[in-house]
């Protein structure tokens, strides 16, 4: 693609501005560990929420969403449940409050509040650090694969996708490593504004260029329907035959079964709490538990409309105007290239530069957030705790620089070995996060669960996720979730029952501070015996009711912009009404009742 001088100027202006912001803020970020990793817990909740939304607006994920919307139409709105996207609902309703009350810096440090300081707690911290570093490397590889494919289409030089990715990684790493959380948050706000303008513009262009009649003629029956039967029943034969091959490769012909599995895995994974990545860091960086809940709620509210305007817009442009070319290419077509091909062919000069800058911003957001979050686990929970407990703040920050660079190198190495975005996405969200579920579900909800149970449960799940691609290469990672969950449960329960419980002092302090609901009867009675005026958490029913309402609210936020772009006005109005009603319920039954 040959970019105009206007587009090139927009892209260069953006890259220079984020580098300058990162370097300017770096002095403030390098004061100490708390400033570097959590922004000193002074950043407003709304800024952290927009930053978190920007971090989830990643280029690799957007390329995947466009390919899914192209193939599955409105039914693609369900597919982000594989992550699961509704974990943000569990966080906003109650888990962000629970997590922020611990007042720690990392998920590994949180282990002390739950399990104390014994040998079991130390093993638990170690396994969380390992998980955080492994998942960070996976996310970096995921971003590496996406940005390389994207850049190879748009940039004028004849370089390989991997070489483009290496160059862009080098530029981004400078401001991320140097600026810490301050740099990440404030550049991500800028990135979100750019991405929102570009995304809505793409949706408007698609509405202007594609009529409902054109779209209906180019898609199979059922493409524009949200709800589904047991089988997918989308037949692209005669339109784009290779899409049927894509559906078989994705393993989604039994669509109802896959969605049920996504819901089963998603609910358990969501109740386990956030994995140790950028999402958790932003919760811990808020000023208070109430701010943590509002921050998590804002993510869903601001992210979906612009993102799905662009996803739907690029999808229908590609279907209507590129369908014959894709049909001619047959099975050789790479559906992950739909996003860059559609931009290349349908977005006008000037807006192309803004959109490329926005998608670079999306890449930088995800990448920056991952690189900023992971080093905290090594530096705070291993280096400072065991190797250099008496070092000054500058030493810890410099070590964070080194760890960040090592993780980037390892992530790029993994990215060079991967064939597709979908491969690493499926492994991260289905296998790796699936292995995380059992131990972390029990840590919140069962008083008897101890540090040894957590260690063996996490170790079993992590090893299962690492071995899965080798031992069962033909098994879809999502379908292996029950097996990974079973491994984690066996390790967790066996490790717990074969070792003594944690001390009453540790358990009572945790229960008094965090106030979880679940199987905490013996500890609740001991806390009430000490503090007669203690009020235990009896909000399980209300929280679960709000979770159900919140998931419906979130799904409506996803489908409304898609209905808008494909010009199904009555369906869009119905989605809007659902949003209004569920928002009112959440206002009355959640927001107004958040504890101060």
UniProtKB/TrEMBL annotation:
One of its GO terms (biological process) is proline transport. It holds the Pfam family SSF. It is found in: Cell membrane. It is a multi-pass membrane protein. The chain crosses the membrane at residues 6-25, 45-66, 78-99, 120-144, 164-185, 192-210, 254-275, 296-321, 354-378, 399-418, 424-442, 454-472, 478-498, 544-563, 569-586. CDD domains: SLC5sbd_u1. Belongs to the sodium:solute symporter (SSF) (TC 2.A.21) family. GO terms for cellular component: plasma membrane. The keyword Cell membrane applies. This is Sodium/glucose cotransporter. Keywords: Cell membrane, Ion transport, Membrane, Sodium, Sodium transport, Symport, Transmembrane, Transmembrane helix, Transport. One of its GO terms (molecular function) is proline:sodium symporter activity. It catalyses: L-proline(in) + Na(+)(in) = L-proline(out) + Na(+)(out). It comes from Paraglaciecola mesophila. It comes from the Bacteria. PANTHER family: SODIUM/PROLINE SYMPORTER-RELATED, SODIUM_PROLINE SYMPORTER.
